[in-house]
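Here comes my example:
=====
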Amino acid sequence: MTELENMNSKKYLFRSHFQNLYEDKVIYYERNLVIADLESIVITEDYFSAIVNPLILIPRGNKFDKYFVKNKKFSIHCRWEQCKYIGTALASYHVWMIWTEPELVKKLEQLVFENRFEEALALTLNEDNN
C-alpha cells in the first residue's frame, strides 16, 4: 500500500467511526479519561480535527483528575500520517485517544453513574484493549 493509499484509507476509516455515535458522545483520553461531546468534526484530505467538550470525568486516581473542567472545550488535530489505531481507539501517536463505539460509550457512562470506575477503566485503558 502506498503512502497516499494508506492516508486515504485512514480518512475513510476515521470518517466511518463518527457516523454512528451514542448521543454524539465519545470516550476521550489525553491526561484525563472523559466522556465527551465532539463538535465541529472536520475530515479533509490532509487531517482530522474536532472540538472536544468534556462532560463526565472517569476518575483514575491520579494528579490529573483535579484538572478536569466540565464543558471547557478544546480542539484536537491530527494529520493522517500521525493517526493510527491503538486497540479499538483512534489515536494521534499517543497524544490522545478516542473510542467511538456506541455500545462502549453507553456502557462506560452507565458504569460511571454507578461509581464503578475500575470497570470503566478496564474497558478502555486496560493493556488488553490497547
